[in-house]
Amino acid sequence: MWSLLVLLQILLVKETAFGIKLTEVRVPKHTIKDHSVRLECHYEMEGEALYAVKWYKDGHEFYRYVPRDSPPVQIFPREGINVDVQNSTNDQVVLDPIELASTGKYRCEVSAEAPSFQTVSDHGEMTVVVLPDEDPHISGGKPRYQLGDAVRVNCTSGRSKPAVHLTWYINSEPAEPGLVRQYEPVVSGKDKLETSILGLEFRVKPKHFKRGDMKLKCLATISTVYWKSNEESVEGDKPQKAPMLESRKAVAANTRADRVQ
Ligand SMILES: *[C@@H]1O[C@H](CO)[C@@H](O)[C@H](O)[C@H]1NC(C)=O
Ligand SMILES: *[C@@H]1O[C@H](CO)[C@@H](O)[C@H](O)[C@H]1NC(C)=O
């Protein structure tokens, strides 16, 4: 028991007496191809002298900052790594531009001078996103629908990486899973970009019309970096004559296109 207490005490002393503290390693989860990104590594030396700050991608060192060296910054070439040296310091590295091969695990390691040689490190994963080259579009809609008609439409995204996630809405409500048809994304081109397709199939019933109006919306998202939707509105001539319905192709007025990043 007594020896355990001593051991605990030694551990506690070690924690407090030698103390480089890594306060934050900030690696964005998603970045956009051809943009730049700032990787941050914040630390407190707590009385120690800094020997080096090193950055690794997937276990390979690509950036080293040693304040005693002249110049202090050293770069090691790696696939997918383009360091903006002007903007890179002891506590941040700017990569510009980001490539698909920049996807990976980034580790920042801070070490102290002799005698402690204490080393602390932490990491974050970054995924490079290629935004879709086109907005999602809705196809297969007929110009006119009557009650009892089969609606069979597809929503197709632009090419992207990773694949866009598509969701169907009928009158602003998510479509029931039983009405949705899943298809495998289509992979194309040198960069193996992906096209997502999601089908929607159902028979037109009175409940699908809100005040004689039916709205079909397809929402396309990639994590939090991409968010776009396309909407088609199907209308009845007059509420009493519900059977005759008309489909309007999405035009500027009823196409909502918001890009969030
Ligand atoms: C890098 O530095 C230049 C000026 O040297 C500045 O215009 C640019 O915004 C900086 N980029 C980043 C990502 O900090
Ligand atoms: C939707 O796309 C799938 C996959 O390409 C295709 O097999 C199907 O026929 C399409 N449906 C419509 C209504 O266009």
* Bound compounds: 2-acetamido-2-deoxy-beta-D-glucopyranose
User: Helicity range of the residues?
Assistant: under 10%
- Give the distance, in angstroms, between the N- and C-terminal Cα atoms: 56 Å
Percentage of β-strand residues? over 45%
As laid out across the biggest beta sheet, the strand order is: 2-9-8-4-5-6
Shape: elongated
Mean pLDDT: 84
| Low-pLDDT sequence parts | 4-17, 237-261
- Structural category is mainly beta
List the helices and strands in order: HEEEEEEEEEEEEEEEEEEEEE
Biggest sheet features: 6 strands, mixed
Oligomer: single chain
* Global Rg: 28 Å
> Given the structure, what is the number of helices?
1
Number of strands: 21
Organism: Culex pipiens pipiens
Domain Ig-like: 36-121
Keywords: Disulfide bond, Signal
Signal peptide: 1-19
What structural keywords apply?
disulfide bond; Ig-like domain-containing protein; Ig-like_dom_sf; disordered C terminus; 1 helix; 261 residues; 21 strands; elongated; binds 2-acetamido-2-deoxy-beta-D-glucopyranose; mainly beta; 6-stranded antiparallel beta sheet; Ig-like_dom; Ig-like_fold
